[in-house]
Design brief:
The protein has 293 residues and is of the alpha/beta class. Helices cover 38% and strands 12% of the residues. Strands 1-2-3-4-5-6-7-8 form an 8-stranded parallel beta sheet.
């Protein structure tokens, strides 16, 4: 039986404790380019505000969230840091720097690291036309700088173009903390899932990598606990609960029902684990990965 407001199993499988959503977006279309955000995306083609996010988090019983950039611009990151300054529920911000320009990346890092909420960097590699982006010498130089400063690096939608490249990156920069968003975007419901599995396990063998259980909606397969179990079991086996983080990926999830339905499905799977394992996925891994206070 579930609580209709939170989606949490009220039989007691979900244990009490802090809950951090390690992957939540906000955007204001007046403040960035958001070239991927077009009217064809329907409900996503709108602004999503801190107030809206707080309502969703409260309804699901989530205590805090890490805001993640959705635009490869400085303006988008500045907006998220401004929100963090005003909203106590924001645990951190994963922003953007121009990784292909090491001098500009260093200047941006100098600026962002003055803000206590800044915890990581992400680049929309899946929208970048360069297949070799993660192996470009300039990008590697910037990522080495992130490693030296203890700043985590998020890789979104790695499958199919960038999952193998992320393995190579993890091997080349063993001191860089790499966060694989959305479990690398497994192609659920397609014949490519076995190829994802192989690359995913190769990446999990690198000790400097963690993975987010987030963004798993796909048009090729239903979204429920049974449908997710294949990739969930692979993630648990490959990374273990101590290297997994929960992320709601709101408002991207709006087109698939919204925050609470997504949380209801993921919490059903997490609720099958031990209290210690639940705490790892819902709080501890995010706290350690992003060095949250």
């Amino acid at each position: 039986m579930t609580n209709p407001e939170s989606g949490v199993d009220v039989s007691g499988r979900m244990v009490a404790g802090p809950r951090i959503d390690a992957h939540l977006h906000l955007w204001n279309r007046q403040l960035g380019d958001y070239s991927w955000l077009t009217p064809e995306l329907g409900a996503l083609y709108a602004d999503f505000t801190p107030g809206q996010a707080k309502v969703e988090l409260d309804a699901a019983g989530i205590d805090s969230a890490i805001l993640v950039q959705a635009d490869d611009t400085l303006a988008d990151t500045e907006h998220l840091l401004d929100v963090a300054s005003a909203q106590p529920w924001v645990a951190g911000v994963v922003g953007w720097v121009p990784l292909d320009d090491p001098a500009a990346a260093e200047a941006a890092l100098d600026r962002w690291q003055q803000h206590p909420a800044f915890v990581g960097v992400r680049h929309l590699v899946h929208d970048d036309p360069r297949d070799d982006f993660l192996s470009l010498p300039a990008v590697r130089q910037s990522l080495a700088l992130l490693a030296a400063r203890g700043v985590a690096f998020d890789v979104p939608d790695a499958w199919p173009r960038h999952l193998g490249a992320t393995v190579a990156l993890a091997e080349a920069l063993p001191h860089l903390t790499i966060v694989l968003d959305h479990l690398g975007k497994p192609p659920r419901g397609t014949d490519a899932l076995s190829a994802w599995d192989t690359q995913f396990r190769r990446l999990a063998a690198q000790p400097n990598v963690v993975a987010k259980v987030s963004g798993l909606h796909t048009v090729h397969a239903p979204f429920n606990a049974d449908a997710l179990r294949t990739v969930w079991d692979v993630a648990l086996e490959a990374f273990g609960p101590g290297r997994l983080l929960y992320g709601g990926d709101w408002p991207i999830s709006v087109t698939a029902g919204g925050y609470s339905p997504t949380w209801r499905v993921v919490s059903e799977l997490i609720g099958e684990l031990s209290p210690t394992e639940q705490h790892s996925i819902l709080a501890q891994t995010a706290t350690e990965t992003y060095q949250l206070p």
